[in-house]
Amino acid sequence: PSPSAWVVDLRRSGSQCVKAGEKPVLWRAASQKAATLSLRALPTGGKANVKIAAGTDQIAWPDGVVIKDGGQYLARVSGNATASKLVLRLIPADLPTDPHRAAWMADMGCTVQAKALLAGL
Question: 73 has which bridge partners?
């Protein structure tokens, strides 16, 4: 499992929720190997290649790739056989509590993150 409800899991395709107005944190399972993350907005958007140091499992969302609600992104970590197709959902800043955020996340298809958020309460 990912270490937090607030990270984007680079292994999973599908909807993933991030807080509106904050730069997302990207997560990969711990690896002792350095890698390169290729991230591209679909269908024809910004793209970035980011080096990930050995032993590093979290990196900030790269500059040059615009974050938008419902935006689709193709993420590939070198050494992985497949790429992930991410759909980002921006959690509204006006939701008052974590249970409200978890319910919204579940409605948007971010079920794994919603469960992780509730498990931490």
Answer: 41, 86
